């Protein structure tokens, strides 16, 4: 049986596209120019059974407009772009490419941490401008304490790298207790305990209504003047105004942020743009050839599995309670 698949982007890497085409699927795309309006129109007028989600939001009214839709498969790990409640109400599984980009994002988090600690962007800009300023000292990571907020595959990858540098690593997640012993990483009893004992904090939690703004003024006050905050998760995890104020006041060593609450930020809208002591990048953590290929393949594999009624990896489905309703 072939299926009609809509990709919410102008293209899909050949690893995923070839798999869908080999399965006899009709694969359609949303153009960069058409964007959200084109996505809504195609879902309302075409017999789409599976969506591979890339960069566009998929709100509840768009889901409701497509009576044939049976699966939304993310070519990524985060799922905050999708109205999961609306999908669940329709019995539509939302699946993610869990683990496919973990190594790339973990490496990027490490890169941000080291770039902030050693002032690398500052020295690069100074040298390009003709300077040779060597008085601004950096921080050595060996022996320092890394705190991981969330302990999924990306955080676990970063933990391995940090341990190899000689760092001490702790993690906090509300669901971490059921994992048992995670030595040599230690479990923090609460977010506040983790922050109070960390020199570097790296955020790896999904964005949900419950943890939006979880790093605010009170949490930042628990960090020391040589603390570094890294975020490769979602920008909404941080109260950006509070972080900008802490950076302006010199209460933190710095921050490395690959994500912002609104992407891209409208001019003049985000207090972190132009703030001191912060490195910003445009959501590039998973932007490697390996990760893009792996997430496309995972997204295609997962959408076909759901539509065929086949098994999924245990942690791939965001709303597993609806899977039984998808069996043909």
From TrEMBL:
The keyword NAD applies. InterPro entries: D-2-hydroxyacid_DH (IPR050857), D-isomer_2_OHA_DH_cat_dom (IPR006139), D-isomer_DH_CS (IPR029753), D-isomer_DH_NAD-bd (IPR006140), NAD(P)-bd_dom_sf (IPR036291). Keywords: NAD, Oxidoreductase. It holds the Pfam family 2-Hacid_dh_C. PROSITE patterns: D_2_HYDROXYACID_DH_2. Residues 7-313 form the D-isomer specific 2-hydroxyacid dehydrogenase catalytic domain. Residues 110-285 form the D-isomer specific 2-hydroxyacid dehydrogenase NAD-binding domain. Belongs to the D-isomer specific 2-hydroxyacid dehydrogenase family. This is Hydroxyacid dehydrogenase.
């Amino acid at each position: 049986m072939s299926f009609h698949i809509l990709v919410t982007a102008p293209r899909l890497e050949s690893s995923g596209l070839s798999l869908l085409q080999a399965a006899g699927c009709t694969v359609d795309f949303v153009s960069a120019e058409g964007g959200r309006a084109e996505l809504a129109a195609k879902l309302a007028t075409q017999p789409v059974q599976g969506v591979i989600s890339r960069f566009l939001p998929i709100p509840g009214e768009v889901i409701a407009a497509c009576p044939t839709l049976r699966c939304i498969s993310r070519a990524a790990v985060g799922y905050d772009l999708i109205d999961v409640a609306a999908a669940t109400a329709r019995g539509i599984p939302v699946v993610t490419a869990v683990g496919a980009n973990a190594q790339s994002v973990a490496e990027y988090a490490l890169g941000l941490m080291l770039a902030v600690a050693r002032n690398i962007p500052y020295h690069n800009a100074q040298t390009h401008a003709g300077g040779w300023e060597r008085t601004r000292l950096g921080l050595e990571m060996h022996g320092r304490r890394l705190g991981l907020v969330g302990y999924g595959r990306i955080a676990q990858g970063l933990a391995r790298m940090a341990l190899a540098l000689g760092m001490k690593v702790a993690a906090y997640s509300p669901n971490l207790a059921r994992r048992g012993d995670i030595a040599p990483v230690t479990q923090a009893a609460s977010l506040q305990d983790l922050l109070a004992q960390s020199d570097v904090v790296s955020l790896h939690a999904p964005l949900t209504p419950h943890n939006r703004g979880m790093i605010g003024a009170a949490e930042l006050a628990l960090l020391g003047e040589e603390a570094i905050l890294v975020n490769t998760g979602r920008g909404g995890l941080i109260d950006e105004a509070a972080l900008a104020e802490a950076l302006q006041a010199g209460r933190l060593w710095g921050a490395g942020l690959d994500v912002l609450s609104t992407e891209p930020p409208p001019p003049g809208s985000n207090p972190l743009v132009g703030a001191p002591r912060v490195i910003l990048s445009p959501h590039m953590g998973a932007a490697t050839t390996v990760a893009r290929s792996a997430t496309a393949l995972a997204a295609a594999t997962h959408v076909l599995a759901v539509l065929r009624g086949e098994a999924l990896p245990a942690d791939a489905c965001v709303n597993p309670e609806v899977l039984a309703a998808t069996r043909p």
